[in-house]
Amino acid sequence: MIEIREGDLDAFFAAPFAVYGDRTPYVSPMFSDLKRFLSAEKNPLFETADDFAIFTAHEDGAVRGRITAHVHRAANARFGLKRGYFGYFDCADDERVAAALLERAEDWARAKGFTELLGNFNLTAMQQVGILTGGFENAPYTDQVWGPPHLPRLLEARGYSPSFPMTTFEIDIRNAATDRLLGSAEMQALLDDGFRFSPIRRATLDRQLEDSRLILNESFADNPMFVPVSRAEYEFQAKEMKWIMDPRISAVAERNGVPAGAVIAIPDVNPMLKAMGSRLGFSAPWHLLKHRLRRRRAVVIFQGVKPEHQGRGLNPLMLAHVLGEMRNAGYETAGGTWIADANAASLRQAEKAGARPLHRLHLFGKTL
């Protein structure tokens, strides 16, 4: 018999380890970060503890799966929706377990008056998004999801339909065709017009992160599903990045000293988290030192240009700049967060840079 428990954070953290094992590419966020994300007191995404719930499935003393149900009030207000969201859906290959978890999430959403349920969102569109539908063999970078092939099948068996196709990419920095991103004449024209790069240093981190938040909100304003990120939300998400940032590989593009675009990139910490089991312990300092000495993978968290500077080649110039800085710093590959099929311009830029598709993802939704 399947038992569903609510609010068991220890079981919630343990669920994917229990059902997937150590040999899969799955990587968990740190337990301390997961606890912080799923806290109404700490996470500014939630107004009250009633805005989300966590559920775990148990059978014969073993945890068999997990799921969140939550509301993104700003998204529903912006797009005029009555939508609930699910996230962190990790489950054994068992239709009974999946049905029990999804039913609890659906019941939660119905009780709130929502008419549809959509996921994965862990927990917003600016964090980990989607259900993996291809590229299962590829290890994820930081901020990329991974799930086994049975998850889409289990969702479809419960009446969920895939939508909003997305792809993540990986670039071999050692052989990246940065000269194809922007012609030398176009590049020189931007430099002649006063564009320069300002590295994001720890001494100026707070100010430059705020600059990057404003750039993010302006540059993504017309993207589907995007909701402007508040300062509190951005700082909450950036908190976990500050201790791992490499100032050499992020930059703000300025025109005559005024921020015009930004690329936020970090070292990929997934190999370290995998080795640590995503928990702090006595060996954590050793793992951190090893990571800093051997980091070879980076991930571009986001890249954006203010609307008044779009269409001039600044986006490819920024990507070429950051890839060059990564190469100089000894990185070998770079991953990127999802790009929707509808975003033709970003897909073209990835192709020009020689990026290869890494994962295929979809959202899965159901009318309640």
TrEMBL record:
Example GO molecular function: acyltransferase activity
Domain of life: Bacteria
Residue ranges of domain N-acetyltransferase in the record: 198-368
Organism listed in the record: Shinella lacus
Name this protein carries in UniProt: GNAT family N-acetyltransferase
SUPFAM superfamilies linked: Acyl-CoA N-acyltransferases (Nat)
Keyword check for Magnesium: no
Keywords attached to this entry: Acyltransferase, Transferase
